[in-house]
Amino acid sequence: MSGGFDPLVPRPLDLPTEVPLTGDLTSGEVAEALDEAKILAAPGTQTDPPDQATLDAWRKQLHAWRSGALARYGTPTRYDASEAQWANRCFTVAQTWLWDELFFDFERQAFTPERFLADAQERFGGLDGVVLWHAYPIIGIDERNQWDFYRIPGLAEAAATLHEHGVAVFVDYNPWDTGTRRTGNTDAEDLATVVRHLNADGVFLDTLKKADPEFVAAMEAARPGIGLEGESKLVTERVADHALSWAQWFADSEIPGVLRARWFERRHMQHHIRRWNRDHAAELRSAWLNGVGVMVWEVVFGVWVGWNDRDAATLRRMLPVQRAMHRWLTDGEWTPLAVCEPPVFASTFELDGVTLYTLVNTSDEDVTYASGPGTWVTFDGPLQHGEAEVIVPAQGVAALVHLSEGAALPAEVADVHFEPPVRDSSFPHRCAVRLSAPSWTGPTAEPATVSALRADVVEVPAGEHVLTVRHRQRETGMYDGAPYVEEWKPLPPRLHDQRTLERVVQIPDGVRVASWEVSAAEYAQFLKAIGEAPDSDVDPAADHPATGATFARAREFAAWAGGRLPTEDEWQLAATRYGFERRTPAVWNWTESEHSDGRTRFVMLKGGAEHKSEGSDWYVDGGVQSPEFALKFLLPGLGVDASPSIGFRVCWDAAEREQH
């Protein structure tokens, strides 16, 4: 238990809603309660499954509820528009940090969408959409607002490349961003500008279930047919103007149930997602039975939560069928639990005499499912006549297509083949490694300049040091591992509370850390030395800290001065000693702490800053911090890391003392 709840157990609001088998579900309180359901629960249990009469009664009640809901809210019409049709084909979407190392090359400082898509094609069977995640968790470091983080050179071209490969582009909207620079426009006006600039197809509504009608109208004007997708369950009333929604933290019934929003409007696309799970089998099975998609989110705000080989292979099995038989999923006659033979279940989707069976297996052993007589497509060989058998893999999915007498094999189905399932469900761990600073090949400072910079230092002695590091528990985690594993929605106090960790570090020869941050005037000297024009607004005699320097440029200054940036541990040790000073205004300090796990680069910032973005816990920590406090800062490229709230100081290894 944590904070009064068990994070490994679904919350009451995550649980499926029971469907009464008797009574009027076209109207009344019970019907309106079903309007709010995440999943409409199926009757029975695996050990006591429902009989055919019970299933018939359950399906009758599902249809009654839908009929009543259509009477209450009207038949959604936006799905009829040709420009909106893309959304109901958008089965698999990746939530992608702009600076994911598959999407961005740090050495070349260039976006690499083709590399990202190639990886997704190989491992998942391709993507239908990508959410370009841009600001959180680094927004709040200074006054830049969420729109500023989309003003990136080359991003529009990267979005165009995604479109060229048939992949829809979503942008992210953070409604909680109210404490940064204001533009004088409404959020809808600023977001519309981003939508037009990137030619976005959809908007992800971060932290929202739905958008206000006025907001919807503004987005539709910016891009007719735009898809709006909220982060949690969408109320039935708003399915009409939100073409997509997350099925996030939806707990299913023991006998698989029905997604309420999908049952109400078959063209409404939902994406199953449990962001901290390492096992996605349940999400995939529910998506398969309901004819919907999944969210592939392998890097959650800098934390690796990659998919295992079994689940990736399951998705590769699903997508060719879903894409080829899309019409069956949206227009066909859907019969949930047409097969209810625990541990095997199936939905059927019938159109023009052709019936798709989406089979799932909830057990840990393979099960052979035997069909009735007929003509069958098994996706692994020629047509079968008579009874057909198909192996439904453990925790996985399979498919059959039945052709009624006189029905032709659909062209969409003829070339679809199931690849074999994969058994390995072990988590593909990644560990972040510390990266060394690149060698400096530029000029070096004059001896007198170096002597002046080294004149005032704090000695950190050699030896072993035990440090207590304080940090706020954010979704970014810290050095390695996920902050949450297999948890349902993390809530305070497990989110945003203060934590500590212990670090044992070795300082081999001792270091001398500059007492003060590099000043703006000193930084101007460096820029002049490398042939760049200093900021014309910088006072040559200014002693305020140099800011607006990228992490790479701060490293270069340190190398020019014959030293390097202090590590986060050296910085902390120096900061607890006499003589360590802060310039005014106080700013965060870069440290020599670049890490990478192959997908995310991050550094540790120390010291805090006078700047503080108010109004949301989602912002970066603001205010001056104690020496023990560390901020994991996801490293962006293309100069986005340069901030007026971040400066730096230099250190020199004690072993080099005699050389100067």
Could you characterize what this model shows?
It contains 15 helices and 35 strands. With 660 residues, the chain is α/β, with parallel strands linked by helices. A hairpin with a 4-residue loop joins strand 3 and strand 4. The strands form 11 sheets. It has an 8-stranded parallel β-barrel. The chain has a 6-stranded antiparallel β-sheet with strand order 15-16-17-22-19-20. Strands 23-29-30-33 form a 4-stranded antiparallel β-sheet. It is elongated, with a radius of gyration of 28 Å.
Outline the fold blueprint.
Layout: H1 29-34, E1 39-40, H2 52-73, E2 92-97, E3 104-105, E4 110-111, H3 113-124, E5 129-133, H4 155-164, E6 168-173, H5 187-198, E7 202-205, H6 213-222, E8 227-230, E9 244-248, E10 258-259, H7 260-264, E11 269-273, H8 281-290, E12 293-296, E13 299-300, E14 303-304, H9 309-324, H10 326-331, E15 333-341, E16 344-351, E17 354-361, E18 367-370, E19 375-377, E20 384-385, E21 389-392, E22 397-403, H11 411-414, E23 433-434, H12 447-454, E24 457-460, E25 463-472, E26 498-507, E27 511-514, H13 520-529, H14 551-560, H15 568-575, E28 588-589, E29 595-596, E30 601-606, E31 608-609, E32 623-624, E33 630-634, E34 646-647, E35 651-653
Parallel strand pairs: 2-5, 2-12, 5-6, 6-7, 7-8, 8-9, 9-11, 11-12, 28-34
Antiparallel strand pairs: 1-10, 3-4, 13-14, 15-16, 16-17, 17-22, 18-21, 19-20, 19-22, 23-29, 24-27, 25-26, 27-35, 29-30, 30-33, 31-32
Helix pairs in contact: 5-6
